[in-house]
């Protein structure tokens, strides 16, 4: 995979028409099929391994530079591989340099605030990579599919929960992300695009294999019943919120090794493209270092 190509291939161009059906969940790099399925996989693993080493170096520089942070947002249907992708992609990174937050159903305290409140508390500090396993996008995804979840966040004054309401939320999200970008947080958003067939296969595997049983929850099956509603919600949300400040990447997710290689590539390439530098050592600091050396040598 060639980096620039990968980025362009999966990045949702801001302002352009976006259709989920133009994105193939079963995509894998072409050109290696002749060597058989394993060869493609091996090649992706090779790319991933290289990307992970590069990412570790990029993250160190981000930390040393200390002026910017990176926020990775992961959204997907159940069993699309969010957890595994986060685990693999971040495996090479210094744990002190990254923070992972998983967002579940909001608490009563969360619901007593504006919908972005609970997420703002978890934003990454400068020099760090923050990971959102689910995010404020749930508030225009699961909540759009099940508007009864709005609770006290429903619009005031008896307004309907209609198009205008959701467009207001997309606008809020875009403004929030623009605010983050202006303040030195690079936002990258990943939709792990798994097909309905592959989700079924993975659910069955969770039922068949005792060591995977714990991963299955009957509510996952219930949400699968709303598949088309979710896809519409994703399509609308991605179309409305892929911006230059915070682009969406629609990552093929039927092959886990493809997902991991693509995400690692996008993250690494983005961090490397930032204007980062190791802090310069001033003449005074150099003097102090020289004195320290003298003292140590004299011991
Ligand atoms: P896994 O199933 O792999 O453990 P998960 O992210 O699916 O990971 P769950 O505990 O199964 O974790 O699900 C979290 C649930 O919380 C999801 O159904 C999600 O839609 C829901 N949720 C997350 N954010 C919100 C929100 N803002 N409002 C309502 N529900 C939310
Ligand atoms: Mg789940």
Could you explain the architecture of this structure?
The chain is of the alpha/beta class and 299 residues long. The protein has one domain: P-loop containing nucleotide triphosphate hydrolases (Rossmann fold, 3-Layer(aba) Sandwich), CATH 3.40.50.300. The chain contains twelve helices and five strands. A five-stranded parallel sheet has the order 2-3-1-4-5, sandwiched between helices. Helix 1 packs across helix 11, helix 2 (37-65) packs parallel to helix 11 and helix 3 (82-89) packs across helix 11 (256-272). The longest helix has 29 residues, at 37-65. The radius of gyration is 22 Å and the shape is globular. The protein starts with a helix and ends with a helix. The mean pLDDT is 91. It binds adenosine-5'-triphosphate and magnesium ion. Residues 78, 83, 102-106, 134, 138-139, 142-143, 149, 217 line the site of adenosine-5'-triphosphate.
The outline comes out as globular
Ligand types:
adenosine-5'-triphosphate, magnesium ion
What percent of residues are in strands?
5-15%
CATH architecture name: 3-Layer(aba) Sandwich
**CATH fold naming:** Rossmann fold
How many β-strands, per DSSP?
5
Main sheet strand line-up: 2-3-1-4-5
Number of DSSP helices?
Answer: 12
Mean pLDDT, all residues: 91
């Amino acid at each position: 995979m060639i980096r620039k190509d990968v980025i362009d291939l999966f990045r949702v161009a801001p302002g352009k028409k976006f259709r989920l059906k133009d994105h193939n969940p079963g995509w894998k790099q072409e050109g290696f099929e002749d060597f058989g399925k394993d060869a493609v996989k091996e090649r992706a693993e090779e790319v991933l391994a290289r990307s992970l080493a590069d990412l570790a170096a990029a993250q160190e520089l981000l930390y040393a530079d200390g002026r910017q942070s990176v926020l990775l947002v992961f959204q997907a249907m159940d069993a699309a591989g969010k957890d595994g992708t986060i685990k693999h992609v971040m495996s090479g990174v210094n744990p002190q340099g990254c923070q992972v937050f998983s967002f579940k159903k909001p608490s009563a305290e969360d619901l007593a605030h504006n919908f972005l409140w609970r997420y703002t508390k978890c934003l990454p500090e400068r020099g760090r990579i923050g990971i959102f396993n689910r995010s404020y996008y749930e508030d225009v995804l699961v909540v759009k599919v099940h508007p009864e979840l709005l609770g006290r966040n429903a619009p005031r004054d008896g307004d309907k929960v209609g198009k205008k309401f959701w467009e207001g939320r997309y606008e809020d999200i875009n403004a929030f992300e623009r605010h983050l970008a202006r303040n030195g947080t690079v936002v990258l958003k990943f939709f792990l695009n798994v097909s309905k067939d592959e989700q079924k296969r993975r659910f069955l595997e969770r039922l068949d294999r005792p060591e995977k049983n714990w991963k299955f929850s009957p509510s996952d099956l219930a949400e699968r019943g709303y598949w088309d509603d979710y896809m519409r919600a994703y399509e609308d949300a991605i179309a409305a919120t892929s911006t230059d400040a915070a682009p969406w990447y629609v990552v093929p997710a039927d092959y886990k090794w493809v997902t991991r290689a693509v995400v690692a590539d996008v993250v690494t390439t983005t961090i490397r493209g930032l204007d980062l530098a190791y802090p310069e050592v001033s003449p005074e600091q150099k003097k102090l270092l020289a004195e320290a050396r003298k003292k140590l040598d004299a011991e």
